[in-house]
């Protein structure tokens, strides 16, 4: 569970960085297009994707902090493995 939590948190951070780059980037990826003023520039709404990234980071961190192994090693000689 710890490795899964770490991977989930890292995926959440990476997705959040991608969302922030989309918000901050002043022009479209098309470098040949003429620049327009800010009143005509339509930026995508990133509230839901950023919220999902935050949830992934929080859940991944909780899984990393509180998760243990998915199995239990028993040293009891009466238990046959």
Summary tags:
81 residues; mainly alpha; 2 helices
Q: Can you walk me through this structure?
A:
The chain has 2 helices and no strands. The mean pLDDT is about 80. It has a domain at about 1-25 and about 45-70. With about 80 residues, the chain is mostly helical. It is rod-shaped, with a radius of gyration of 22 Å. It starts with a helix and ends in a 15-residue tail after the last helix. The longest helix has 23 residues, at about 1-25. Helix 1 (about 1-25) runs antiparallel to helix 2 (about 45-65).
Quick description:
This protein has helices at residues 2-24, 47-66.
Q: What's the total helix number?
A: 2
Residue fraction in strands: under 5%
Question: Termini, distance in Å?
Answer: 22 Å
Count of beta strands = 0
Outline the low-pLDDT stretches: none
Strand and helix map with partners:
Elements: H1 2-24, H2 47-66
